[in-house]
Amino acid sequence: MNWSSLNFDWNQVRAFLATVEEGSLSAAARALGQSQPTLGRQVAALEEDLGVVLFERVGRSLSLTPAGTELLEHVRAMGEAASRISLAASGQSQTVDGHVCISASDMFSAYLLPPILKKLRIMAPGILVRVEAVNTISDLQRREADIAIRHVRPEQPDLIAKLLGDATGSLYAATSYLDAVGRPKTVDDLADAVFIGFDDPVRMVAELNAAGLPFRVENARAYSSSGIAAWEMVRHGLGMTVMADSVGATTPGIERVLPDLPRLKFPVWLTVHRELHTSRRIRLVFDLLAEEVPRTWLTAP
Fold it and tell me: Which of 11, 41, 147, 262 has its CA 20 to 30 A from that of 110?
């Protein structure tokens, strides 16, 4: 290794990479928690140390020079290596104190995760939990979360995934709604029912049709990207929807529609980054979720 040839600072390289990724000095400064002048000086210092011009101004925006474009590929590799180092360092932590971030859907986060976290508080009071209640897939490799609860199996080789089993779901509606419009007696009666959709009603209706439920897109009179908001619409009698049985069967004022229909099934995966799986606090939370989620989420009341 020719140490004398390493004539740049990692903070300068990070400033350059953040500027490219975020699109501007101001956006990069916000992402890194720095002032724009400080970030600008770091980029300028990198250009001076390397003896090249990395950006040229085009109006009010920045454009990479050929030298900057050539350097970018190597800098991105450095950024990925730095991320791996951070993951490895986190994984070597043997204390049960510290932060753990769990990513799960907003429904799971609101209705089923709190009792599990209460048990965790008793087991390890030094763990500070951050819950990312999102209905999109968090990128564990980019440290958006430490542990994720998903309905799809991850494909990345650096992730460890444990299939916890199949959750079940059924069609539910408020008693007030069914009292007003009547209770369906056959599947065909659903053709005129009002349906509350989650996110994209077209995709959801297609999935329900594949499960034998004859809903049409026109039936979706309201929908939301928030599962909690959609479920509140159902609770207030705006229509019916498919909900996990662990939530639907335990919500007051809610009835299962066509209870003789077979329950729908969907897999539940518990996912963690391979290197984080060696951390005691991550492993403790992972193991607790692996034990408690089947008991609360996968058991139909």
Answer: 262
Contact 242, 253 (CB under 8 A): no
Of 39, 35, 51, 37, give the one whose Cα is nearest residue 13: 39
Helix, strand or coil for residue 199? coil
* Alpha-carbon distances of 75 from 16, 25, 47, 81, 83, rounded to whole Å: 8, 17, 13, 10, 12
What is the H or E stretch that residue 110 is in?
helix 106-111
pTM: 0.65
pLDDT of 201-243, one tens digit each?
788 888 888 888 888 888 888 989 899 999 999 999 999 999 9
Write down all domains in the chain, each with its CATH number in brackets.
3-91 (1.10.10.10), 99-161+273-293 (3.40.190.10), 167-265 (3.40.190.10)
The 10s digit of each residue's pLDDT in 255-297 is 999 999 999 998 999 988 876 667 888 888 999 999 899 887 7
